[in-house]
Write the C-alpha cells for this entry.
Amino acid sequence: MRKFNAFQFSLSLSILLITIGTVDLRVFSLVPLYLTYLSVLAIIAGFIDLYYIFQNVLIAIKAGVLLAIAAILSSVQPAHLSAILQFGQSVPLSIADLSLIFGFIIFPSIYIISYLFMFSKKEN
C-alpha cells in the first residue's frame, strides 16, 4: 500500500474544502457566477497537480507550492477578510468561512511547511 504523504494530504483536503465552499457559495448565491468559475478553475488545477503528485513528479510538488502561495494570497483580499468577520451570522456564510480558512490558509500553509521541511532535509 502506498504511503499518503503530507503533500497529498494537504492538497487533497484543500481541494475538498474549496469545493465545499464553492458549492456553498453558489447554492446560496453569495458570490457572482464568474467567481464560481474562477474557483472551479482553481479546483481543476489542484486536481491536475494532485494527480502528478501521486505519480511522484517533483515539478508537481513545486507547482503545488505556487498554488499554495496563490491560495494564501487570494485569501487575504478585502472581500475574504470582511467575509471572515461575518462568521456566525448564517450557516452558509460560516461554512464558506471555514472552507476559506482551512482550504485557502491552513492546508496550503501545511503544504508549504512540508515542502520547506523536505527541502531542509535534503540539504543535510
About this structure: The chain has a mean pLDDT of 90. The CA atoms of residues 8 and 50 lie 7 Å apart.
